[in-house]
Write a structure and sequence with these properties.
37% of the residues lie in helices and 22% in strands. The strands form two sheets. A two-stranded antiparallel sheet has the order 1-2. Helix 3 packs parallel to helix 4.
Length: 107
């Protein structure tokens, strides 16, 4: 989540979920490994193709990427965010990437 959005909202639901899973499963959270480098238009209401274009170049690897990674999200709609994020992580050396989400919208 972009920092300005986090401040406005007051919380980051995906990070909260990741931290709860970290405690329950005794696995580390690498929330500082990848950062959003610029603000993008809200994804709500965009088509899958528009979401992919909207996210192009938005993520930057800022730390060592482990071989095995789980991307944690609250809701996966089109999969555009996790697809772009997984691509960046794979380019940085991740070999196994899983997506853990609480919900998946239909379609």
């Amino acid at each position: 989540m972009f920092p300005a959005r986090r401040r406005k909202r007051g919380f980051n639901q995906a990070r909260d979920i990741a931290e709860s899973l970290s405690k329950a499963l005794s696995i580390p959270v690498g929330s500082d490994v990848v950062r959003r480098v610029h603000k993008v238009q809200a994804q709500r209401g965009l088509s899958r193709e528009a979401r992919l274009a909207n996210l192009s170049g938005v993520f930057k690897v800022c730390g060592a990427v482990p071989e095995r990674v789980a991307i944690v999200d609250d809701v996966v709609t089109t999969g555009a965010t996790v697809r772009i994020l997984a691509s960046v992580l794979r380019e940085a050396g991740a070999e196994e990437i899983q997506v853990w989400a609480l919900a998946r919208t239909p379609g």
